[in-house]
Amino acid sequence: MSNDEIAPEPRERFLTADHDSRRSTLRALWVALATAVTFTAFGYVTAHVHSVRAGSPWQDDPYDVGVSFTLFLVPALVVLTAVRALLYRRGEPQPVYRAEQLLRAAGLSVLLVGATALLDWAAVALRADRARWDQGTPWMIAALALLTAGTVAAFVLLWHALRRLPAQGRRRPDGDWLGDLAVLALRLASHLPDTGVQLAARLLSDAVIDWIRRHVVALAAAASLAAGLAQSAAQAIGEGWTSPLLFVLSVGVAGGGYFAFCMCCNAVLRIAVPQATRADHGANSGPESAPGGGTSVVTKRGSRASKSRAVRHAAVAASFAMPVALALHGVLWPLVGQSGQVDSAAKAAAIVFTSAAAAGVVAFGTSFARS
């Protein structure tokens, strides 16, 4: 087919300025944003204001572990969503995949809020730390009820908005967050002097974007480790830690949780997925005969891709297992035949890192067997 005969892209892949789904999408995004902001304020006050936290039913583990992560992750998702939403202008046609991915990101942030609210309600139902409840506890529970109602409303609006989007155009192979952020950065750089525009064009060239896509796992690991180190260092200084093992444990739990979240976000939100998706698709497209009847090159690539995918799954599973194991240390400790309480960093580290290793081995074997 010649260039003149190439069929135009289906109009269903774009939302016109007057498309009936545009209003529901914006409404759902605004409500989700309000829910996330409300949760952040609620979580910060109940977790970090000592006079309020003293009477909180969810001040201890396993409830506190969930809040520790979501209080960081929800605002991060909100910032990412808000930045990308700058391209979602009312008067311009918008690709369907952009609207869908924005709604998915908002949905993930609301899901995290809902999961944290469920943990808090579990603490209330189980009357956790009942002896510490004070006159402020009923007000916290009432605020939690309002937050829960807002979360449910946000879920309903997001679900309704997703259903109103056209089916075509949602999974465009080259439609991801990274591409949109590059477009936005270049658009903002257009207001700078010529040298600034040229610098932005070089930093956000196709080659750089493709490099980021190819190394997204390593970059996510580095960013997660940096975040874990920063968080643990702040805690160590603030609380006067003296145990190196406690610091290592904290870095592992925090960094592991952030890495697992980053990889799940990449899979669900398509932040930088298309490059890896195309590579995996090509690697698993089926066996082919190599010249001269030798071993198939495609088969070898498929085997390498399967191992690489299994390693990624194992790393994510092990990373996710660390904060979960720490939150459930009181349950896991007797299950492995130990008595007493987990009252030292050594015992906690044994549970966390053993659980991570077990989860990684199981995930690797399962993923490789299914390849």
Written description of the protein model:
It is a single chain. With 371 residues, the protein is mainly α. The protein folds into three domains: 13-167, Butyryl-CoA Dehydrogenase, subunit A, domain 3 (Up-down Bundle); 173-213; 215-285 and 298-336 and 344-371, no CATH class. 73% of the residues lie in helices and 1% in strands. It has 14 helices and two strands; from the N terminus they run βαααβααααααααααα. The chain has helices at 20-48, 50-53, 63-85, 96-125, 137-164, 177-189, 194-203, 206-214, 216-239, 244-269, 274-283, 297-327, 329-335, 345-370, and strands at residues 14-15, 94-95. It has a two-stranded antiparallel ribbon with strand order 1-2. The radius of gyration is 24 Å and the shape is globular. The two termini are 36 Å apart. Residues 280-304 are annotated as: Disordered. The chain crosses the membrane at residues 28-47, 67-87, 108-127, 139-162, 216-234, 246-269, 314-336, 348-369. Keywords: Membrane, Transmembrane, Transmembrane helix.
